[in-house]
Input
Amino acid sequence: MVAGTSVNDQVYVSEIFLAPDYSRIPTDPMGAWFLHLLTGGPAGFNALAEAAHELADWEPYAKVVRYRRFEQERRLIEAEITELTGRCALLQESISNCRGRLKAGGVPFLLRSLEGRTNLPRHQGFPRRGRRGNYGIGGAPI
Output
């Protein structure tokens, strides 16, 4: 039930769209002051949103709030991408270091008998044999 309606009243929900005004040609570009308020800190945005709310039409207010929501979501995604890119770079560096240690340690030479074999088993966590104990991938005991 929606406030101000009775039980039998039908409630309609729809998107609010701002109708473009093409009578002003060329259209005025968005001023830097407006973009600063729209994308800036909470104080500036709240002042802009309040001023838009006081207009006779609801459409400008709805568009301002929608723009802010989209901008915040984009910023969160951008931050996540930056974090993932950094983590990926660290992993790539670790892989390169590990590859260098394998080569420097002569591991390819020690395992040269496997060269050219295509029917190798595809198992993970091969147990280590010997005095050091059995460890799987990642160093966890088996």
